[in-house]
Amino acid sequence: MAHEFGTRAIHDGQEFDPTTGAVIPPLYLTSTFVQESIGKLRGGYEYARGGNPTRDGLQAQLASLEGGRFAFSFASGLAAEDALLRSALKPGDHVLMANDVYGGTHRLVNRIYASWGIELSVADFSSLDAIAAGLRPSTRVVWVETPSNPLMKITDIAAIANLAHEQGAIAVVDNTFATPFLQNPLALGADVVVHSTTKYLGGHSDVLGGAVVLNDEELAEKIGFIQFAAGAVSGPMDAWLTTRGIKTLALRMPRHCSNAQALAEALVGHPAIESVLYPGLEDHPGHELASRQMRGFGGMLSITFKSGEAAAKKFAESTKLFQLAESLGGVESLVNYPSEMTHASVRGTELEVPTNLVRLSVGLEDPKDLIEDALEALKGLR
Question: Per the residue annotation, which of 45, 56, 82, 102 is the catalytic one?
Answer without folding.
Answer: 102
